[in-house]
Design goal:
The protein has helices at about 1-10, 10-30, 35-40, 45-60. The chain is an all-alpha fold and about 70 residues long. Helix 1 (about 1-10) packs antiparallel against helix 2 (about 10-30) and helix 2 crosses helix 4 (about 45-60). It is globular, with a radius of gyration of 12 Å.
Length: about 70
């Protein structure tokens, strides 16, 4: 479902999939469940979502340009 939002959605839907769901999912698994999303969940996302997952990680690590591109 998230992959569909990221690949097929217009800008608003894509942002919902990327920032709303992927980033929220990463944060919720770490802060609320104490799970490592890289181990537990990253393998479950599709290829475009995985590329955005990596961009989100780069952004959190200080790469201010990581989320600038709309291309996965």
């Amino acid at each position: 479902m998230i992959e569909h939002f990221v690949v097929e959605g217009d800008e608003r839907v894509r942002n919902l999939g990327i920032i709303g769901y992927l980033e929220g999912f990463q944060m919720a698994t770490v802060t609320e469940s104490g799970l490592d999303p890289e181990v537990e969940f990253r393998r479950l996302v599709g290829p475009a979502s995985e590329r955005w997952w990596s961009k989100i990680n780069r952004s959190w690590a200080g790469d201010n340009s990581a989320l600038q591109s709309t291309e996965p």
